[in-house]
Amino acid sequence: MNKEEELKIIEDMQAVVEQMRLDDLEDNPDSGTELFECQCCGEEKPLAGSVVYDGIRVCNDCVLLAETGFALGKIKNISELMQNMEDRKLEAQCRFIRQDEIEHNN
Ligand SMILES: [Zn+2]
Question: Which end of the chain is more exposed for a tag (fewer CB within 10 A), N or C?
Fold first, then answer.
């Protein structure tokens, strides 16, 4: 798969996932303001556009990552995505801690 094909898939997925969000908002306008804690990114996100994979509810942003990951063959299931996110969260935490150390040393 070349870059152009990958980009096309990503664009398609963005449209599909955005449509899911719009459909949810149409069915239930409250879903745009009702929040839940996404089990993937750990953030409070609106219910609209969220999807349950393997019993795990993930937010619209994470759905896009998941669907793109599936389409590109980068991940096989939602736990792989969560694992990836966990790594990134750790990375962000490590940077934050290092920043903190630097500030304390000054
Ligand atoms: Zn999320």
Answer: C
**Distance from residue 37's CA to the centre of ligand 1 (Å):** 8
Residue spans per domain, the chain: 3-105
Half-sphere exposure of 1 (CA within 13 A, CB side): 10
Angle at 80 between CA 5 and CA 55, to 5 degrees: 110
Report residue 38: phi and psi, to 5°. Answer: -65, 130
Task: Give residue 102 CA to ligand 1 midpoint distance, Å.
Answer: 30
64-104 pLDDT, tens digit each: 999 999 999 999 999 999 998 888 877 777 787 777 777 77
- The answer, as to whether pTM is greater than 0.85, is no
Q: How far is the CA of 104 from the centre of ligand 1 (A)?
A: 32
Rounded Cα–Cα distance for residues 13 and 93 (Å): 29
